[in-house]
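Illustration: Transcriptional regulator, TetR family protein.
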Amino acid sequence: MTATVKGSGAFGPAAAGGGRAADGRSARWSSHRAARREEFIDAAVRVAAEHGPDLRIALVAAEAGVTKPVLYRQFADKADLLDAVQQRLTRILLDRLMPALTAPVPPVARVRGALDAFFSMLEDYPHLLSRPGDATPTGRARVAAALTGVYGERLRALGLGTRGAEAWAHATVGMVHGTAQWWGRERPMTRTEVVDQLTAMVWAAVDGYLRQHGVVLDPATTG
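Result:
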């Protein structure tokens, strides 16, 4: 009986302690891997900003200061890395867009602020839309989803139904995205000029939609 108790002590509490130590090491290793993955995504984003979104793994590895096998320890394949880069760029874009879209300023100023935030992203990442057909369909969908929420909130505040919010958001994203692709290729005008032009167009669409539903919104009034 005594021997059994000793045996339990040896493999019970001690093993539990060993389990906690192993858990601690596992947590630290997971944290290290996560931090390392973020470093590699940082490097990939820098490469994408310079060379475009269709990344060459060798360039990303060189930017990160590692070999390709080391890079691939963090990503299943190139598609996994591209997906991580797209998610990071979308997050950066939303971090710029949302404060502008929800700022306590007049409606036209809010529209202009959001458009300027988007075009500032294109200036910082000039190859973001360089792949034919669009490099970031998932990013567009996330922006449209965020915009749907903003439109829905404003429609409710005006006493209107929100049924058209999603279509309205996708229409806005499509118009802005198409203009951005053209502007990125041609650069026929400055960022300020294209933002001014788009602001007038987007506001005309907003104003027209609201007037159809009996709402006239003063573009110079905060709300």
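Reading the tokens back as a structure: The radius of gyration is 25 Å.
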